[in-house]
Amino acid sequence: MKKKIKHRWIAMLLLSAILSGILANHFGLSAQTPMEETSEPITARNLNSDYNSQSELIRSNTPQVNLYINSNRVEVTSYLISDTTYVPLRAFCEELDDCNISWNDGIASVESSELNMRIQQGSHYIEANDRIIYHDEPILNVESRIYVPIRTLAKVYNLSVAWEGKTKTVYLAGNPRALKKGKDFYNEEDIYWLSRIIQAESGGEPLLGKIAVGNVIINRKNRNDYPNTIKAVIFDKKYGTQFTPVANGSIYNTPSSDSIRAAKIVLDGYSLNEHMIFFLNPRAATNFWITQNRIFVTKIGNHAFYK
């Protein structure tokens, strides 16, 4: 009788161990604690959405950066994350400008006599004077403070940027002045046509996919073997109609706010790759000349891009 009881207990313990392993694998559980040492570096992309809980992790695992503006040291806590220098928005703006900063529903608004800026945590771009400035790394919230990539803010204030890796120091130089307003910077015809081709070709794609389509148009415009205006590139028929939306009329559809935003980002100089001049959706394509004759660059959403 005792042997039977003993065997039952052993069987139950084995079953419990097996079930624990199955549940751990299924739900991604681990015996490791959340803060256990890991070889994965701290990057902007792998920070949890609960940024405040990561403050100690950032302070202890990311190097701080020295900041100088026109040879004057600025006493702000800046971090090097994902090879990008992040600076606190409020401290930086107050150093350069007599600005007023307000916060509402995850969006910081910066206003001064010459600047109107909106910044949302988690976003990859800021809106400044009706222009859209994009950066590869997202806006962060560290200890309830908005941190922005330094090069993005430097562009907003028309400052040059120099980096000294040995001392982890950023040098900004120039006369701080607000970015030229969108109405004075963008060509309205360019926004009109670029946003429409982006919408027609990639209306259902993520923002980065829309930007990539816009890059293709700009890259063609900048080459000698294509027309030298955005509209002319879109309607180019030298080797037959280049873009399906021109043939089926969808080029004239009203663009979404995201497509307009992507057009502005591209027109403001952001480029994923300056050599991309072709793209296609491999699943929908009927002609595979591009895949057979051009060099693959990247795939974003449903589109593959080539040079």
Comma- or semicolon-separated keywords:
307 residues, alpha+beta, Copper Amine Oxidase, Chain A, domain 1, Arc Repressor Mutant, subunit A, 2 domains, 8-stranded mixed β-sheet, 5-stranded antiparallel β-sheet, 16 strands, elongated, disordered N terminus
What does this structure look like?
By secondary structure, the chain is α+β, with helices and mostly antiparallel strands. It folds into two domains: 51-183, 2-Layer Sandwich (Copper Amine Oxidase, Chain A, domain 1), CATH 3.30.457; 186-306, Arc Repressor Mutant, subunit A. The chain is built from eleven helices and 16 strands. The protein has helices spanning 2-27, 55-61, 89-96, 150-156, 182-185, 188-202, 207-221, 230-234, 244-248, 257-267, 289-293, and strands at residues 64-69, 72-73, 78-81, 84-88, 100-104, 107-111, 116-120, 125-128, 131-134, 140-142, 145-149, 160-164, 169-173, 278-280, 296-300, 303-306. The strands form three sheets. Strands 1, 2, 3, 4, 10, 11, 12 and 13 form an eight-stranded mixed sheet that branches. Strands 5-6-7-8-9 form a five-stranded antiparallel sheet. The protein has a three-stranded antiparallel sheet with strand order 14-16-15, covered by helices on one side. A hairpin with a 2-residue loop joins strand 5 (100-104) and strand 6 (107-111). Helix 6 packs across helix 10.
